[in-house]
Amino acid sequence: MVKQIGKGRYGEVWMGKWREERVAVKVFFTTEEESWFRETEIYQTFLMRHDNILGFIAADIKGTGSWTQLYLITDYHENGSLYDYLKSNTLDINSLLKLAYSAISGLCHLHTEICGTQGKPAIAHRDLKSKNILVKKNGSCCIADLGLAVKFNSDTNEVDIPPNLRVGTKRYMPPEVLDESLNRNYFQSFIMADMYSFGLIAWEMVRRCISGGIVEEYQLPYYDLVPTDPSYEDMREVVCIKKQRPSFPNRWSSDECLRQMGKLMSECWANNPASRLTALRVKKTLAKMLECQDIKM
Asked: How far is CA 269 from the centre of its chain?
């Protein structure tokens, strides 16, 4: 373990050295054993490896009588989270599309069930936010923090929800989670909830993309509508009752790419879950936009 690089409600993240390579070591609080177990279990799912999902190296548990240390070792990405990256960097159209496309590719892989004996279940993340997406050296993203993920196996039609008490991040919760109308027995509910959160993340990205020499300062979604640490009540009022969503700066309408991105995010954060875009649909749209910009991924 070399130095601490982050911390959250589950524990801490350290940068470590393993076989001369830098790795990230997530150390969970003893109370978060469910999160550790869940994340480990999901990472070890067959066919889980993907360029845009954080690379899993190992999981370990060290017990010394009364004290248990739970470790999760993954690839290390020095740029840190998308949240950190957007705070300190502005984007051009190319880097915006690369970040967005790689993030949705990771989400699309999670959401997709691969059938067969060596298949993978469909997985919904349930805590998507810019702090849970990491930015790689090459300017693409990978999705991290799978401690809340839900699995679905179509053979058994069973929705496997983790037993941990931790629920997602209030600011990124869709209306159906805030007003408790989400049907937990219907797996697609969780998939559609992820898409709402993705829409908010896209908004965070687009604000940091320069057009016509203008760019907005980094802000979290709903920064102008709720307090810094919003309650369920704060969020429900804005998202469910007033049906408000993050606003678009005027400049977006005069740039074709940013205008399309705005349309895309609006279709992800629709109030009605059934009318939200799927990850695959967003991935195809972004692929087309990349093609028009002549960008090679």
From this structure: 14
Q: Are 156 and 211 in a shared domain?
A: yes
Amino acid at 294: D
Tokens of 203: 């908004």
Coil, strand or helix at 258? helix
pLDDT 10s digits, 35-90? 899 999 999 887 889 999 999 999 999 888 778 889 999 999 999 999 999 999 99
Can 127 be counted among the known catalytic residues? yes
Question: Domains in the chain: how many in total?
Answer: 2
Domain assignment present for residue 297? The answer is no
3-state secondary structure of 139: coil
- At 7 the three-state DSSP class reads strand
Query: Is 26 marked as binding a ligand?
Result: yes
Q: Are 91 and 83 a contacting pair, CB within 8 Å?
A: no
Dig out the tokens for 231 from the structure: 């309650």
Q: Which of 84, 92, 127, 234 is catalytic?
A: 127
